[in-house]
Structure formats: structure tokens, C-alpha cells
Amino acid sequence: MSSFIAAFVILLGFFLLMSIGYIIKKKAVEGSCGGLGALGIEKACDCDDPCDKRKARMAEEEARAKKLAQNRIL
After folding, report:
1. pTM surpassing 0.70?
2. Terminal-residue alpha carbon distance, the chain
């Protein structure tokens, strides 16, 4: 039982250290492989015709990018 408690405390310590790192750097934990972008895949789904939810999200992202470009100071 004491080894379980020790392992749990160590695990909590790592979570605490990671959360302090996130608070200080404001950067999320990332993987080292580069994700799907490293494989040349632009999106998670490989379908030719995206679903309605995906279309709405893409339109929202495009509108946001357009608004940011329009209100850009520099």
C-alpha cells in the first residue's frame, strides 16, 4: 500500500510541475512528432465533402481570419 501512495504522490508532483510550467509559459504540452502536419495531412478527416459541422467551423475560421486581416494595425 505504501508503494501505491508513493507512486500517487510522485504522479501528483509531476502534474503540479506541469501545471506550474503551463501557468508560467502559457504554452500547452506538445508532442515531438509534429502531428498530422508532419505527415502532409491538412485535416483529420480525409473525406472529399466535409460534414455540415466541419463546413460551419471552416466558415467561422475564415470569417475570423478575414476580420483579423481587416482590423490589423501593422
Report:
1. no
2. 61
